[in-house]
Model the fold of this input.
Amino acid sequence: MPDTDDIFGEPTSTREEILEATFHALCEHGYSNLTLDKIGGEFEKSTSLVYHHYDGKDELLVDLLEYLLQTYEDGIPLSADDPADRIDELIDQIFLMDDTTGGFGQALVELRAQATHDEAYRDHFELTDDLIQDQIAEIVRAGVADGSFEPVDPDQTAAFLHLVFMGVHTAQNTSSTVSMEHARTELERFVDETVKR
Amino acid sequence: MPDTDDIFGEPTSTREEILEATFHALCEHGYSNLTLDKIGGEFEKSTSLVYHHYDGKDELLVDLLEYLLQTYEDGIPLSADDPADRIDELIDQIFLMDDTTGGFGQALVELRAQATHDEAYRDHFELTDDLIQDQIAEIVRAGVADGSFEPVDPDQTAAFLHLVFMGVHTAQNTSSTVSMEHARTELERFVDETVKR
Done:
């Protein structure tokens, strides 16, 4: 997750200003304790504008998630070209991500939990899941094609790796008793021994 | 997760009666929409008894989680003796679990999300994480000792498998775009090719 300057730049609309205020309030207070008034407190203009644009915090948060997803429409940014290096870089990014989000990672665990009962959140996270799985499958497909990977099923490997990433994200934000170092070493063993050639 | 008769049997105290009512209300309404009044609605005695025993829904839910954890103090029930069969059985249980909980699996995703900001939930889930990781590590250690497993690091394999299980649980309850069949086949490939001998 880049810092907010990279995401919002110089907001060009009231919507962008509200979303930036929402992002900051969400990182500070988390989902459960967030209110439209707290979002208004991060907003330079009148809080009543927030109420004018959105019916409640969930409508606003889903709009924020959609806005953030646009930043990631090409998936997680990777610089390597080689499939083997791209997989390594992806694993790096996933394990690093939650150290650098200043509260956003924790909020994201709470937001995903809303997908258990709220259709709008569920639609959003299903889009995200598709995006990430497609990105992983594409990397694996390229590795199989150029012979640097075993002839694995790209969609199968992608579904599994995405599950691992969801586990990493949940564990990093809700528990300190799961050793990320252990889990990562074992994940790399899986990739080295059964995916890469 | 066994059915509630297995968990609560014939409740022998007001606490157990309240906890059983809470379990049913939680499965029906989920965490976000749960109130002490809705719990009272599942409770045969007066709702005021619930308020008398607990200050709020979180105190009550953490007590329910602790009560349920006692049922699992020996870990997830497995019947096989052989380490290779026990690992297979554990994977079976994890993938089956969420099909059989009637709303409890979804509620559990919401409850774990509370661990991002609530110490009492966090303490509970860290205990649970320790319990499951210890159980997996013990199986792996037995397999390494009797020569049926590769000489892997039991704690490392356990941390990784537990992360996978967390990912399975989150995905099953928040998204239908992650193929559980794919993920499971790939998990079994990991276990067959790099853990079992």
User: Anything to note?
Assistant: The radius of gyration of chain B is 19 Å. Residues 19 and 50 of chain B are 10 Å apart (CA to CA).
